[in-house]
Amino acid sequence: MFPRPSGIVTLCTDFGLDDVYVGVMKGALLRASGKVQVVDLGHAVPPQDVAAGAFQLWAAIGRFPGGTVHVGVVDPGVGTARAVVAVFAHGDYWIVPDNGLIAAVVAGDPAAEARALDLDHLGVRPASDTFHGRDVMAPVAAMLAAGRYGFRALGPRVELQAGEDPVFGGGARVVHVDRFGNLVSNVTAAQLGGAGRVEVGGREAPVVRTYAEVPPGQLLAYVGAFGLLEVGVNGGSAAAALGLGTGAAIRWLPA
Length: 255
Known about the structure:
CATH topology of the largest domain: Rossmann fold
CATH superfamily of the largest domain: S-adenosyl-l-methionine hydroxide adenosyltransferase, N-terminal
Strand order of the largest sheet: 2-1-3-5-4-6-7
Number of strands: 14
Radius of gyration: 20 Å
Strand content: 25-35%
Number of domains: 2
Number of helices: 7
Shape: elongated
């Protein structure tokens, strides 16, 4: 049984806010249904960085009312043969290009189901080959969120493209750097266990609970808001202090 759509649509893109892309995408949503509530999950994914977008979509799991429709547009293959899919996972709906953007989300839900959008059936006719966020994903998200179409009516069931989870697949590493310069890893609290120290970039940091447990300017490690190991600096930027970014290896050590 699929939950009733909440009427909420979130947007996660690599569009930034310097151009009109986000605005006209919202316009397409509202043209398809004026009843939806649009929430900006974020538009600062680095251009064409599917792995970064996958992390941000994963971070939305369980953070919105059940039946929310999440739209992810990080789509370097726009206009090619890659499919646009609707996915049901974790009690929500996700509309994305089938390019690995949804991999971290579905990896955590063995009951996830994907549907390829049947644009002819839905009456959606893209005006452009290079802006499927506006012309395909936005109107379909609005139709689903408003209850105009049920999930199974969006198109035939399909298997998503096989590929490694770009967030949690592979080794322990930094997968996101936030605006404060905190290095967010793909190491879960359960994996960290009772470790007392973390090593990253040739430096060690104590595992503590809050920033205040170390002096200003000192490196620290902690379990952050998403249940993942992070490395920060009290009052500063770990990314700047260590000269590191995404992909940096990280390991945890006994107390």
